[in-house]
Amino acid sequence: MNNLLLGKRIVVTGAARGLGRSFATAVVQAGGSVVMCDVLAEELQDSAASLREQGAQVETQVFDLSSPQSISSAFSAITAGGPIDGLVNNAALATGIGGKTMMEHNIDLWDKVMQVNVRGTWLVSQAAVPLLAQTPHGKIVNIASDTALWGAPRLMAYVASKGAIISMTRSMARELGPMGISVNAIAPGLTRVEATEYVPAERHQLYEQGRALSGAQHPEDVTGSVLYLLSPLANFVTGQLLPVNGGFVFN
């Protein structure tokens, strides 16, 4: 696995912490270089510095998924560094948006989640396509969620946004295939990271007891699937959704 992404330049959004940081780490451990992107500027620089200390080739870009201008500016800088081989659309709004029923949701919450998770993913992908098209096998990996597969309650805006990511993945695969770009998605289960610290203990327990492979899910349980989809091993795979949740949901 050490050379699986040798010479590949990969953009990872939401890379300052949690799953995104794990994806960025896995990329460089597999021989690639990484462009780490996040709105959390200080945490992003700390995470990047940690990887550089290990000899990794790391670039950083601070941008806000809710701002088209911010995304455009960041990708202008990324473009200056040359083509990219892959994009991991990991960044999303998740913290602090759960716990409300469908009836308790308000328009501001709904619009914010859709603006960041859905529109932001589309705009980042749109900005990345010209760079991905310059390589023989460009790859986009969208991070969805298995909440969209089992219909998690009290999380409707987030669930809807991740359902949209799954549908977008299939449409993008059709449109970008003629350009040599494959687009796939993974649907992780509830993972023990900073963004899920707010999740009630009973929801964690539901997952951990309900999995075919029982127990907690950690970032390292997810990274291998992303590396595969970014690698030459998946050159003929596109438009697919891979649940990575220990068998809580089968697809």
TrEMBL record:
Signal peptide: none annotated. Residues 8-189 form the Ketoreductase domain. The keyword Ion transport does not apply. The keyword Oxidoreductase applies. Keywords: Oxidoreductase. Gene3D superfamilies: NAD(P)-binding Rossmann-like Domain. It holds the Pfam family adh_short_C2. One of its GO terms (molecular function) is oxidoreductase activity, acting on the CH-OH group of donors, NAD or NADP as acceptor. Belongs to the short-chain dehydrogenases/reductases (SDR) family. This is Short-chain dehydrogenase.
